[in-house]
Design a protein that fits this description.
The structure is a single chain. By secondary structure, the protein is α+β, with helices and mostly antiparallel strands. It has helices spanning 42-59, 63-74, 93-96, 129-145, 153-157; strands at 3-9, 12-17, 79-80, 83-84, 86-89, 103-110, 115-121. Helix 1 crosses helix 2 (63-74), helix 1 (42-59) packs parallel to helix 4 and helix 2 crosses helix 4.
Length: 167
């Protein structure tokens, strides 16, 4: 449910919501309040994946490897509370970069044990518009380095939400 804080009185907060919820008087409820962020648009996500596919063809690598490279270069780190998420595994970096649903960057290796430490990055489905625009900007820069044609700035502005954060 999305709402707006309209006032504070003592230890009470008045929140105006877009949805009416009817509950009996004295019903206990659990409420989670966090700052609202605009979600990235599906058009922006589709454009990222299109560029990723073109880049992987040019570089002759897999889609998963290309996407992981872009996300770990320009994407958002996964946090557990205030701490960046890391994993410890025996999966080698060459195999880890081929993972479709897990985006990780190697940060340490324990050679004698064959153990690798990775920093975990969030999937693009969790990005807001600002985070997605950072990822797209980095992806565009990588594509331009490879001579891949990208959208003009005006075309990029048409991607819903992108123009608010593109600089």
């Amino acid at each position: 449910m999305i709402g707006t804080i309209k006032g504070i009185s003592g230890n009470h907060i008045w929140i105006e919501t877009r949805t009416t919820v009817m509950l009996p008087i004295d019903t206990e409820v659990d409420i989670d309040i966090k700052e609202h962020k605009e979600r990235r648009s599906l058009n922006a996500n589709a454009y990222f994946h299109k560029l990723c596919d073109e880049l992987r063809q040019k570089l002759r690598i897999s889609f998963a490897a290309c996407k992981n490279q872009l996300i770990t270069s320009y994407g958002q780190i996964e946090y557990i509370g205030e701490v960046p998420a890391t994993i410890k595994t025996n999966i080698e970096p060459e195999k880890m970069r081929e993972q479709e649903t897990l985006h990780c960057m190697p940060i340490s290796v324990e050679d004698d044990e064959g153990v690798f430490w990775y920093r975990v990055y969030r999937g693009t489905h969790t990005y807001d518009t600002k985070e997605m625009s950072i990822l797209i900007d980095g992806t565009i820069a990588e594509c331009k380095e490879q001579g891949i044609e990208t959208m003009t700035p005006n075309e990029l502005e048409r991607l819903k939400g992108y123009e608010r954060y593109h600089q």
